[in-house]
């Protein structure tokens, strides 16, 4: 599903799937909402432009495109680690989602009188295996996951809307850390998903980007629909994601998580298969499955959420530094194709200085809190 709609579906899915881990209690804190909105503008938006710019420049999936970009920039191959961060982050998202929903699913079935006599981790492993098999269907599970999870949120909203109250609390560094984390999760920073699913990106490893670069696609036409979708769906997720799910709602949500995890595992497997071409998609899928099982069995949802934060932060910094400091100015200017030089300079200041600084401040907030 390599088209503009795939990026919009991903943009809608990520907040619904991941927001629950980083929203403070109570949920109706206006100061936190404003911080998240600010982080979406000053951190998320420049990083999204950076990822789309790299996609336009390379016109190959991240596993192949980053190799070409580092050669063009005549920079260290250490920046190619970004691809491994995308693989790890996508598998962490899959593992966290399955690990968290498996315990809720057991409780839901018990309330419905359908007791499953299996431990949490065993159900999680079974779900990972099913997700790995579904991942062989490619990106087709993305739409199913979004529909099922959206239905679960609508079902939950009916019972939880009356319990939400808006309050103003004292802003803190810890709140800023959570707001930045939500902005990174919203944008999908570090996953490379919007790069991978960009319409200009070719799956052909022998594809030459030189011809396509002459089209000078405007990055804003791709970035703004994605960002606005994240902003709208993120606002909905902020309101309803902390509400408790009824048993039926939990089951619907669990099927959505299963389909979403299949999509993330498909993405990770495709990257692995392109890094090690001798493996093929079947071996790459087996590797993704084993790694995800290890995450589900060894780690708790809380520890996986911490790992998600750490990998997201590292990936965001790598993306910001590489696109802002390592890429040639002329290459990024042509790839982004802004309407004016002033807008490009504003983005460049943000990606080189503001974004890394604010992320570091957020890290300090996490440590202190």
Structure description:
- The chain is mainly α.
- It has one domain (4-368): Hydantoin permease (Orthogonal Bundle).
- The protein is 76% helix and 0% strand.
- The radius of gyration is 20 Å and the shape is globular.
- The termini are far apart.
Keywords:
15 helices, single chain, mainly alpha, Hydantoin permease, membrane, globular, 76% helix, SNS_sf, transmembrane, transmembrane helix, 369 residues
Structurally, the number of domains stands at: 1
How much helicity do the residues have? over 70%
CATH topology: Hydantoin permease
Class by alpha and beta content: mainly alpha
Shape: globular
Unreliable runs, pLDDT <50, ≥5 residues?
Answer: none
Share of β-strand residues: under 5%
Number of strands: 0
The average pLDDT is 88
Largest sheet: none
| N-to-C CA distance | 41 Å
The CATH first-level class comes to Mainly Alpha
Instruction: Summarize the helix and strand pattern as letters.
Output: HHHHHHHHHHHHHHH
CATH architecture: Orthogonal Bundle
Q: Gyration radius, to the nearest Å?
A: 20 Å
Put simply, the count of helices is 15
